[in-house]
Queue: 2 jobs
Job 1
Amino acid sequence: MQATREGLVIRALSGFFDVETEGGELYRCRLRGRLLEEASASDVAAIGDRVCFEAVDVNEGAILSVAERHSVLARAARTSGNRGAGEATREQVIVANADQALFVFAAASPEPGLNLLDRFLVAAESAGIETICIVVNKLDLVEPTQARALFRDYEQMGYPLLLTSALDGRGVGELRQALAGRLSVFTGPSGVGKTSLLNVLQPGLGRQVKAISRRREEGIHTTRDSELVRLGPDTWLADTPGIRSLNLWDIEPEELDAWYVDIASRVADCRFGNCAHRDEPGCAVRQAVAEGAVSDRRWRSFRQLYDELEAQYAL
Ligand SMILES: Nc1nc2c(ncn2[C@@H]2O[C@H](COP(=O)(O)OP(=O)(O)OP(=O)(O)O)[C@@H](O)[C@H]2O)c(=O)[nH]1
Ligand SMILES: [Mg+2]
Ligand SMILES: [Zn+2]
């Protein structure tokens, strides 16, 4: 019998996983038995997972078990059901065991979509991820004060902002410091410069970025597969494909206010325990919006997402 080995999933491709051992050996692995059955409902293995595997050949293996995760950043992904059975959703894991999520937006080109950021923040807050940062890249395209102003609400909520330019290198030192000793993930829309930043952090890596001549082609995602890259002894960074929209996985409308940190701090003062912060009397959230303590945009974003989750749960 082969001895089992341990490793970290650094790449997830359709049907197989690249697992790196402590000593830096790489094995391309498939899921074995029971795990394979469970994989239809959710990603039982994903980048960031620590797994036990059995080597079945030179650099080939079979994953026998996946260690319990301390955080799971996930989204709901539609799958086409069996003929005529309609669509089903399954849990798609963006990264497992991340200590830190860095949501990357561009200060301009493309313009930042704050409603998408709100969804990312809900996903990360509910994922059990310890540190959440917002990276505002392409600082070379706008005035720094303007870039900061776009995300002022978030800074007030306590999310650290990192202003960077992959083009001129500004902010890359701070970014490197924020990454040290942690397993982090870059997530954000396509074309904001996630891979470009990673290439600056790790010269010689040379991951493919969008060619300048193709910049106007909408909807082209340059990075297709997620990959966990080792930047130092205990420092890992996951580069992921751009996300255009994010459907939340396993969040009920009633719990949503807990994950909007600016709204969460007001909820205890609402008159009714089940307040949906819509038009209920004595709603402390509406009061905070009226006073300007919670931004109107955040409240509308919350309401929109609440309605969407309610419609999903009514099905
Ligand atoms: N002006 C400027 N352009 C940048 C910067 N960072 C990246 N770009 C450009 O933006 C485009 C997209 O960069 P990518 O690194 O491929 O973006 P991405 O976020 O990895 O995109 P996906 O892989 O599709 O999710 C490329 O043409 C880069 O050269 C920056 O700081 N400033
Ligand atoms: Mg990319
Ligand atoms: Zn309320």
Job 2
Amino acid sequence: MSWVDELVSMVFKSRDREFYIVASGLTTSGPAHMGTIMELLIPYTISKAIRLHGRKAHFIFVADTMDSLDSIPAQLSNFKELKDFIGRPLCMVMDPYGCHSSYGYHFLDEIVDMTKKLNIEFDEILTADVLYREGWYDDYARLYYSVLNDVKEVLERTSLRKLPNDWKGVVKPICGKCRRNDLTTVLAFEDDTIKYRCEFCGYEGAMNIESHEWKLLWRLDWPSRQDFLGVDIEGGGVDHFTKGGSWDTAQAVHKLIFNKEPPIGFKFGFVLIEGKKMSKSKGIGALSEIMRILHPAVIKYFLLKHDLEENRNLRLDPKYILSLYDEYKSVGDGRYQNLKQLKAWEFSGGIKWRTSFSELLVYYQIYRDWGLIKELIKDEETVDDLVPYVEELIRAGMIPEDYDIQLKPTPPPPNMRELISEFANLITEFMSDVEIHNTVYEVARRRGVDPSELFKSIYITLLGKPRGPRLGKFIKILGVRRFKEIVNDVLSKI
Ligand SMILES: [Zn+2]
Ligand SMILES: [Zn+2]
């Protein structure tokens, strides 16, 4: 069974309902990366699977726009003025590009754009600043202060950290002077009034809870939001689920403070790029780049085919990229190695390409004319779907050596000339690529030559190098007639 089936049957077993709320929260603190896709693709896939099993699902994406900007991502290091906004809520940080009301909303929009390209759909998008402004968290703040000792005990036990004796930090007020909400300390809470001190600028002030100039501590924010949204299932990266992580706190808050069953949790592995963990601030593996070379369905397939908690390591070397495309097509053609691959393919959109990516790569390098290629292969649909990615890989020089093709007719070694000529005479337009391939073996065997020598010599004749794409396919793409012309031409000039 694939992870998604396992998870969904577990959800049905522990919560037998007709309707499920699936949620995902994300801090919109910078440009999206592959990990951002995971945070949305996994719950989206779960909601899709719930629907496939005949029940209803509602997928909510909550943008944590009240989180403070803790560092400036590497890609934005040119925007020096952002430094002045560190520590402020993302919805109150300037949009460096000037097109949105704030930094948090700019990157929220980027995420939404990206998910559109990936066909990941939400039923609802909520932003934390609006939820706070509408008062959804007010009663939770009041509740936590009314049982402050219990809350403190839960936090200490589940975060494995000791809190100060006079701790009252249920909320993080936004400083009335410097507007930061990362370094404020609550001094007192009484009759809905929060008194605080800002450790950054030294300001001391007070605010009413209904001013909504505050947010809950993250570990309390999460269970509160899950409670008022009625979340049934929500996951997170493995880092949230370690011992002492925020999931432990969320669960304990549901059980001990709300006296309710917590939502069902699940955790998923990291996405590594070239074996390295990505981070927003380091900017490794820029998503925009990956999305230029990998078709959205292949990105989703890659992320979904692993076990849920396994790390995914995306390699950006040309061979690996090409193998992902070819694997995707194989699964679509019914040639899959395991059920996980099939499920991942189905949930990625289940596209069936009639022509393989590597074939298109060869076609394009030979003909450089998509109109002509469409006529030759009679598969307009696949060409239209894959053109941008084929062109981008060629432009970026990300083609495996074997697939880097430029016709460069070159004389083969003298002892191979007769064999090549015999091979050329034996093949016809009506043969399949496999038959052409097998003819190489046939000729070599008859002449008592190692077939690999003959393959090498044919590649040299065509490309001036001893390797190339699979020969039968390559000659089919080139055209048997054209192949014979090249061979005759090269051999006649010797
Ligand atoms: Zn903007
Ligand atoms: Zn301040």
